[in-house]
Amino acid sequence: MSDLLSIGSSGVGAYQRALATVSNNIANVNTDGYTRQDVSLASNQPRLLGGSYLGTGARFDSVQRQYDAFVESNLRNSNSDLQSQKPLLSYVNRLIDVMGDESIGLTTAMNRFFESSRDLASDPASVVSRSIFVRDADGLAARFRQLAGQFELLDNETRQAVETDVGQINALSGQLALMNKQLTKHSTAASQPSELLDQRDLLLRELSSLVAVKTKFEVNGAVVVSVGDTLDQGILVNKNISRAITVNSSQINPGSLEFVLDAYGSPEPMPGLTSGKIGGVISFRDQVLSPAADALDTLSSALVKEVNLVHRDGVDAEGLLGGDLFGFAAEKTGQAAGMQLLIQDANRVAAAGQFRVIDNPLNSGTAQARIHYITPEFKGPTQLRGDLALAKVPQIVTSTINIDANQGFASLGLVPIGTQDLSLDLLSPKTGQTLQVLTRDGRHLLGSTLTENQQALLVNPGNGMEAGATYSAQALNKTPPATYLGMDIFLGAQASVSQVQQFNSKTGEAQAPLAVAAQLVGNTFVGSSGAIAANTYQLNGQNLPALSGPLTLGSVVNWVNTATASQAASARITASDVDGKLVLSRPSSNTTDDIRLGMGSAGSPADLQRLGFDTTLHIKGSATDDLLVFVTDTAIPSAATSSNVEVRAQFANIDGDMKQSLRTSTIQVSFITSTQYTIVDSRTTPGTVLAERSLIPDPLSATPSLTYRGLKLEFSTSPKAGDEFTIDGNRDGIGNNETMLRLVALEEQRIMPGGLTVTEAYIERVNQVGNVARQAAISEQALEVVYKQAQEARDTISGVSLDEEASALVRFQQAYQANAKVMQTAMALFDTILQVR
User: Fold this and answer.
1) In the chain, where the domains are located
2) Average pLDDT of 348-377?
3) Percent helix, percent strand, percent coil in the chain, to nearest 5
């Protein structure tokens, strides 16, 4: 009886605990992080009775957590991946709303800006159109600032979100460290309270929603948590120690965020975070927001650069050159947030081109002309040859020039417009060697008349000439004011009035300089045989007579003095022998006139050399046009392949601009025939002929056109003989709307990377953000499915099912009742035995 009672008693006790476990599962069906518990029962040790073993009942063994480490890890990883898409999608959608909004986005503002540009181009003199243009230009700059401001708000918001989430990570890691400390009370995970392990897993799951983690579990259930690439890196929690994460702005890229573990202990840089809520925010910042902000800055910089380039090239309503239309705040250079309109006065809008063309109303033809300027690109030299280009005061450069016998000339390069006070010396020239100075249109200014063969060789686009240039000696060796464009240019030996600094003899203070009369001093005179022909030399424009040989210094001095004896005493140039050198002097009272010893029609640099003087190209003041300089040699021996000559150069400065020089001129294009025309500059009286050409059809254009130094004149139809067109600098700013037309054309110009227009570049960026949003939405849907599958897998093992628990409850209840019935039967049998008499 006692055995039967003990067996029933053990069953009742075991199933009582089983019922309690099921009841606990049912009670915690909605408890977050709860893991279903299952009771483990075992049979008692049997007893040997007679020759057989008899069972002694059942006993309660343990309560087991229904837990799978792999499934739990999979749930954490899928949770991290899913949570990374939610903030990314949310922020990207907000960014699309900002960039695509009509009141904030750029498309509407840019359309208005270019539309007002078109209106102003159609009526550049309209004050109303100018005011509307200024308003819309200011609106465009304001729209850039507003959009950049929205980007900055998103930047600050996401930064604060990251900092908040980092704070939560630090709090959770601290709780896990405390949890590990509690778990040290037991040596194995099986002996730990299930609720404690549930709390551990819940903390890990919450942590995984913020950042992807790697875990390693100790025997007692304590966990090591890492946020690095491996478990050995980026350890966040180890035993009862947690390490805090610090977030800072990147030193290399201030727009990016950097994470550091244990910044105030043993700092350890963290790798980029790509999963979890923080990973999603970082992905948005680095892959969407930052590129969008950079693209906006690039767009603003490119637009400002191109608009300013056009606007600076235009003329405002008062005929002044335009300045920058847009700019950036000093502290935000090149950033959309600092873009601003620099012009507030509508009259300062440069709507007109720098040139205009006026058709002569008496033209017999119907051709109408249109003009614009394109920076010319010439073949040939762009400066003086070699080291000669470095001969800026105080430098003096000497170079040896080789002349090929087959060509008979060598280029000394280009004297650019604006070159000041140039001296280019031909040292010890041989017979037949001389300097030649021509313009790009073949106007021969200095030197000796060229043969047809020399003209063909020198007047060539390969040497820097204009296409269609023709040779002319009309301005050859002229003296001011009859020189080309009135330029003070001379070839020969020259001496100017000098200034000598004076000082007070008592105080030593500087006084006004003293003007000293010009004095031309030659090199040591070397006598020679042979006579001097008439017209070999010119002295200040006066042809000197012939002189029979041989030449001595004394005979030359007498020859010069005899030739100048008829000059007025105040202006007379006298010759003298000073230390074996020929010296030409003005009277000391003449402190205004210079001395110029040049070559006549029969002279050459070698003749100047006979008198002890080098031949020098002098430009006093500034060169008013581009000048091409050559050295020719017509006496190279037939057996020689080349000759050479030494050249020395020095100039004060180069400060010229072809375009602005043309603006100061009034240029007249006159058609002699329907194809032959001349270009005349009216700065001098009479006007200077700049070019004589033939009208060459342009294969790229259906309309005839001509160019001169970057000016391009296009005709609606072919001009007729006698037609005249006048080009000036558009000084009233209303004669040509070219600048505003160029500004309008910017809307269609592909100035952005990838060959896009500014509008296309912005729309492309909006589309890229939209693509990210679509991809994020698709990824979120896919990861939602993955997460649900992981959740279902976890629930299948660890979740509480009320149906299963109800079934277990009935089963355990029946077992409990059956064991109680066993005990009741044992008691009844025992009572029966007691009643036996």
Assistant:
1) 2-66+799-834, 493-611, 658-726
2) 91
3) 40, 25, 35
